[in-house]
Each structure stands twice: as C-alpha cells, then as structure tokens.
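Many introductory courses stop at the sequence. We go one step further.
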Amino acid sequence: MKTSVVILVSVLLVVAMASVAVAAEPQKGTVKGVDRGAGTITFCPEGTTHDLTLKADKSIDLEKVKPDMKAEIMVDKDTVKAIKEMKKPKASVGC
C-alpha cells in the first residue's frame, strides 16, 4: 500500500512539473485582432491555420498590441501573461 502511494505521488509530481514547463513555453505567431473592451487578443500560432482567442492579463498594455503584429507570447492556460513584438531582421548591406 505504501509503495503504491509513493508511486502515485511521484507520478503526480512529474505530471505537474511537465504541465508547468509546457505552460511557460513562448509561442510565436501573428496577432490577428485585439478587443480592448473584452480584454482579448486573437492570435494565430506559427505553423497553424487556426486562431486562438485569449484573455489578456491586466499587466498587458493592449494599446501597444496591433493586428498583424508578429509576436512572441507567454500563455498560462488561456491568458496571455506577456507579449513581445518580434522585430524584422534588418536587411544586410553588401554582397
């Protein structure tokens, strides 16, 4: 009985740690729209064709988030915790 409890607790800890690691991964993509009234961002992750409508954390300044903006976001569940605009690389000069 003790062994099964220890195994169960160990498995639960591993699953919890894995879900935290996945939640903290940044996602790159394109902002498709911003609804300031509802406090939401519509985002299309790179490599997909579907849009996600996510809540924006209160710390996000939605005035700085623009449609068609390439961005990297940090999402926790269905809430955008951080958003960073991805700058286009400067064109190289020369040959």
